[in-house]
Amino acid sequence: MLRACLRGANATARKNYRRIPLTSLQQCRHYTAGESSSASKVVVAGLLTVSGGIGGTVLYAKWDHKFRAAVEKNVPYSDWLLGLALGPAAQDPGLPIKKRVELAQPPSMIEKQAKKEGAEGPVKDSSPAPSQPAQSLEEASAEATHIISAIGEVPSVPAPCDTEAAAVKECNECHEHKEATAVHPAPTEPMKERPVEEVAARLAQQEQEEQDISASVSASLEDSLASSAKATLQAIGAQEAALQAIMQHTDKLKEAMEAEVLPEEKSNQWKDLEAALADRTTALNDARAALSKANESLDSLRSVIDESKGLKISSVRPLVLAAEENLHNMVVDLDKMVMKVQSAESEAKIVSQYSELVNEAKRQFQREVSSLTPEIQANWKGLTGKLSTDDLNALIAHAHRRIDQLNRELAEQKVREKIHIDAALEQQKLEDQKALDNAVNTALQHVKEDARLDQERKLAELREVMEAEMRTQLRRQAAAHTDHVQDVLKVQEHELKAEAEQVLSSKMLEQETRYRQLTQEQLDNFTLDMNTAYARLKGVEEAIDSHVVAEDEARKAHQLWLSVEALSYSLKTAEADVPTVPLENAAQAVRDSCRDNDFALALASALPEKSLQRGVYSEASLRARFNSLRSLARRVALIDESRNSLYQYFLSYLQAALLFEKSQEAPPSQLSSEDLDPFKLLSYASYCLEHGDLELAAKLVNQLRGEARRVVEDWLIEARLTLETRQVVNLLSAYANAVGLGTTQAP
Amino acid sequence: MFSMSEKELGKKWDRCLADGAIKLGTGLGLGIVFSVLFFKRHTWPISLGSGAGLGMAYANCQNNLRSHYMLHRGDKVGLSMEKID
User: Fold this and answer.
1) Least enclosed by CB within 10 Å: which of A102, A256, A709, A714?
2) How many domains does chain B have?
3) Which residues of B touch A712 (CB under 8 A)?
4) Nearest-CA distance B35 → chain A (Å)
5) How far apart are CA A582 and CA A605, in angstroms?
6) CA dist., res. A629 & res. A700, Å (int)
7) Is residue B82 part of a domain?
8) Is B85 part of a structural domain of the chain?
9) What is the predicted ipTM?
10) Does B27 fall in a domain?
11) Is there a contact between B3 and A714 if contact means CB atoms under 8 Å apart?
C-alpha cells in the first residue's frame, strides 16, 4: 500500500516536475497527505502495536528468564536488544550467586559442625558454639600454616633429628656407660679381659706397691716405736725419779714431823725438806713433761698404727700387731709408773696435810701465846731468862689453862680423832676406791687391750689361715676356671671354625658363581659379537646381492617404464575421430620387458583385445562424438520398450524440442531418482566430459535407458574401452614408476 | 569395425522416409492408375492408395523402429554379452 502510494507520488512528481517543483511537492504532500492520513493512522497503529509487542516482550523477558532465553534463541538479534534493555543475561548473576553459595557453604559447613558439636554437647556448646567456628577456622588456618611450615621444614627436620637422636643415643649410652662404670667400677675391671701379661704386671705392680708400702709402714712404725720407747723410758725414768723424790720428801717430812731434834737440825731439816720439796716439784714437773712427751709419742705411734691399719695390707699386720703390743706394754708401764707416782703423791699429800696440820696447830698456839703475852717475842723457847714471876705465873697459869684446854682438846681430839680417823679412813677409802677404780680401769683397759691384741693376733692368724685356704680354693677355682675356659674355648673354637668355614664356603661359592657368571657373560658377549658380526656380514652380502638384484630390477624397471611410456604415448597420439594405432606392438614390447613380472604381465594381458587390434579413441574424439550424440539421445528420450510407436517418437521429438536444460550441470555426488532423467544425465555427462572426467560421464551415460541407451551404446563401449586401456596403462605406468622409484638408490 | 549405434536411428529414419516415399508414391501411382482405369477418375482410390501407401509406410517405419524391442519367433533369449555386442 505504501509502495503503491510512493509510486503514485513519484509518478505525479515526475509529471509535475516540469511545471512547478514546489507545488508538485506540495501537491505531492497534499496528494500524499490525503492518503497519508489514513496511512499515518495505519502507520501509527502499526508502530504502536509493534512497540507494544516489543515492550511487552522485554518486560516479560525481564520477569521470566526462560522466556527471555527462548526469545533469544528463536528471534535473531533479540539477545542484543534484550541485553541493551535489561542488561546482561541472567547467566551473569548466576556466578556471583554461586560464589556466594560457595562462600556461604564453608560458614554453613562450619555452622553444621558447630551444630553437630552443639548437638553432641548441648550443655556446654551454647557459648563456645559461636567461638568454635572462629576457633575451628583459626585452628584450621593454624593447622594449615603448621602443615605448610612443616612441609617446608620437613627436609631439614630429619637431619637434626638424626643428630639429636644420635646424640641422645650417645648420651644415653654415655650415661649408661657412666652409670655402669660408676655403679660397678670393680666388677667392670674383671669383666674386661685383659691380657695375662698385663694382669701379671698389674699383680707384680700391686705386690711391689704393697712391699713398698709395708716397708715404709714398717720403717715408720719402727721409728715411731723407737721414739715412743725412748720417750716412754724417759718418762718412766722421770717418773721413777719423781717417785724417788716424792719418797724422799715424804720421808724427810715424816722425819721432820716426828723427830724431836735440836732446832738447828730442825732448821736444817726444814731446809732439807724444802730442798726435797723443790726436788720433788722439779722431778714431778720433769716427770709430767716426760709423761706428756711419752703420751705424745704414744699418740703418734697409735696414729701411725691406725694409718697402717687403714692401709689393709696383710704383710703389715704382724708389724702392726707387734707395734700395738709394744705400745700396749709401754702404756701399761707408763700407767704403772704413773700410778705409783700418784700413790706416792697421795701419801705425800697425807703427810703434808699432817705436817700442815701440825704447823697450823703450832702457829695457833704461838698466836695464842703471843696474844696472851704480847711482850713475849716469837721464839719463846729461847726467852727463859728474861721472864718475871708474874709473867711466869701468868705463863704457868696460861700454861695450865692451856694444858687443860689441850687436855680438853685432846679429849675432844681423841673423840674427834675417831671421827677424823673415820673421815680420813673414809677419805682414804674414797681415795683408795678412786685409786682402785683408776687401777681397775687401767687394768681393765690393759686387759681389754691385751684381749684386743690377742684377738687381733688370733684374727691375724685366722686371716692367714683363711688366706691360705682361700688361696688354695682360688687355685682350685682357677684350675676349674681354666678347665672350663678351655672347654668353652674348645667349643667356641669349634663353633667359630664351623662359622668361618661356612662363611668361607659361601664366599667361595659366591666367588665361583660370580666367576661363572662373568665367564658366561663374556662368552655371551663374545657370541653376541660374533653373531652380530656374522649377521652384519650376512647383511652386507645380502645387501650386495640385493644391490645386484636391485640393479637388475632397476634395469628391468627401466625397460618396463620405457615400454609403458611408449604405450602411453601411443595412447595419446590419437587424432580426432580416428582411433589410435593398434596398441599391439607397444603391448608386446611391454610384455617382453616384463617377462618375469607377473603383475605387469597380468596387467599387460588385461589390455582389451580391441584396443590391441584396433586401437582406442581419444577422449577428445569421444567428447566430440558425445556432443553429437546428445541431441539424438535427447530426441529419443521418451522411447523405450513400452513406448516405441511412431507417435511416441513424435512426442519424444516434441519434448526434446520444447524441453530446455542446462547444457552442463555439475553432477551431484549421489544420484537421486529425479537425477535419472535423461536430460539431466546428459547435462551431467557433458559437464563431466568438459571437465575431463570420462569415467563419470560414462557412468552417467550408463544410466540411460531405453532407446537413448541403445543410441549411445557404441559410444559407451568405446568409452569403456578407452577407459579400460587408459586404466591399464596408468596402472602399468604407475607400477613402472613405483618400481623405478623403488629401484633408484637414494644418494 | 567401428559400429556407431547412433547412426542406426538415422538409418532407420532414412529407410522410413525412403520406404514411405516409395510406398506413398506407389500407392499414389496405383491409386491414380486404378482411379483412372477402374474407378472413373474418382479421387477416392488415389487417397486410398496414398493413404494405404502411407499407412503401410507408417507401419513399416514403426515396425522398423520397434524391431529391436520385439521378440522374433525363433529367437532364444540368452544372457550372454555377445548379443549386446
Assistant:
1) A102
2) 1
3) 5-6
4) 30
5) 15
6) 14
7) no
8) no
9) 0.84
10) yes
11) yes
